[in-house]
Amino acid sequence: MSSFHGWGAFLGLALLGTSAGAQTVAVNDGGGPSDIGWTSAGSGDTRVREAARSGGSVAIGGRLAVAPARYVVRRGDTLWDICSSNLRNPWLWPEVWSLNPDITNPHWIYPGQVLRLRLAGDGDVAAGSWGEPTTLGQPSGGTVFFRSEGYIDENAPDEDADEEDIPEEQQPPGRIVASWEDEMMLAYPDLLYVRFDEDFPVQAGQQHTVYRVRETVYDIVDEDSDEEPRKLGRIVEILGTGSVLSYDSEAHLARVRLVESVNPIERGDFVGPIQRNFIVSEPRAAEADLDGRIVATLRPRINSGQGFVVFVNRGYEDGVRDGNRFQIIRANDHYLESNDDDIPEDLPFEWIGECQVLEARKTASTCLITASTREIFVGERVTLSRGR
């Protein structure tokens, strides 16, 4: 399903309402929300088509259903169907996709995945409408509320290290070895079988984080530099939470029920006591002037935008503190770039976005993009100004 068709439908409705002096046809005059003209296959559609043929305009009225803030994906669901049943407008699927940056492909959603259907305040919001942001961006003076979903671990073992050469303190406590489910991608509320280290204390009722240790991230150096890029660490991506149902101490095997899934989980992923902090990041003036680069993204993707998590190659050793706000800048001529033409090297930098530090670690910082005017790519330059 392409967004082009969605824009086509929106444009069609706009055109229906632009005929000067035409009659008004009321749609859904007091009926239930299922009769809303542009989503129903019933009488509402007929009246909309009649209005179009006669050059009339359409007045949308009646009672609208309240759109839920969250929805748990069921087997067979699509974004189109979810928007149709919950928002009474299937053409809103691109907007719902944009509210869920964890979805890298709108055709790939999984049972148990929790979708955000709207950004709204404490009050109810009618289906098909949108409230003000409350959890991303800057809802109250720039304060960001966020639950940790990953970081760059500077102490993680090398990717090519043999398991027997990894120090005991760096070994994962548990690993998913199997599942009761007949599916490759696992999610809430699937049943997992987790093999724990024999020295790791396990008992029923414990909750542990499911995570994945991904690729090594290296610093970015200029092409004409002879400097070797320093290793920043490896990305630790948090995937969900599991609760121990029972434990076989002889086989060191636990039955674990997924109680939360942030992203699809697979056999081989790790399980352990990694804390998922709820971050309240308040804006904080910078203590140093710093330049840096965006070196990686939390979720594997080509480009990012507002609401996405990225990693910057500056950490608390460089003077970065939680709440600092990096300005994202770029020097470019996008038209020349699209035509593979030469771009002058002395163009000034222009502002294209901002990202706020959620957690400053030793070598790198986890940041949330709070504003963007263009797509953000790995390699973008960022700057921090003292006192701002």
Structure, explained:
With 388 residues, this protein is mainly beta. The chain has four domains: 1-63, no CATH class; 65-134, Membrane-bound Lytic Murein Transglycosylase D, Chain A; 151-276, Beta Barrel (Elongation Factor Tu (Ef-tu), domain 3), CATH 2.40.30; 283-384, Thrombin, subunit H (Beta Barrel), CATH 2.40.10. It is 12% helix and 32% strand. It is built from five helices and 21 strands. It has helices at residues 3-16, 43-54, 79-86, 93-99, 334-338, and strands spanning 24-27, 57-60, 70-72, 114-116, 144-147, 150-153, 174-179, 191-196, 207-218, 231-248, 253-261, 270-272, 278-281, 290-297, 303-304, 309-312, 325-330, 350-360, 365-372, 376-377, 381-384. A six-stranded antiparallel beta barrel has the order 7-8-11-10-9-12. It has a six-stranded antiparallel β-barrel with strand order 14-16-19-18-17-21. Strands 1-2 form a two-stranded parallel sheet. The longest helix is centred in the N-terminal third of the chain and has 14 residues, at 3-16. The chain is globular, with a radius of gyration of 25 Å. Mean pLDDT is 77; it is low at 1-49, 51-65 and 120-141.
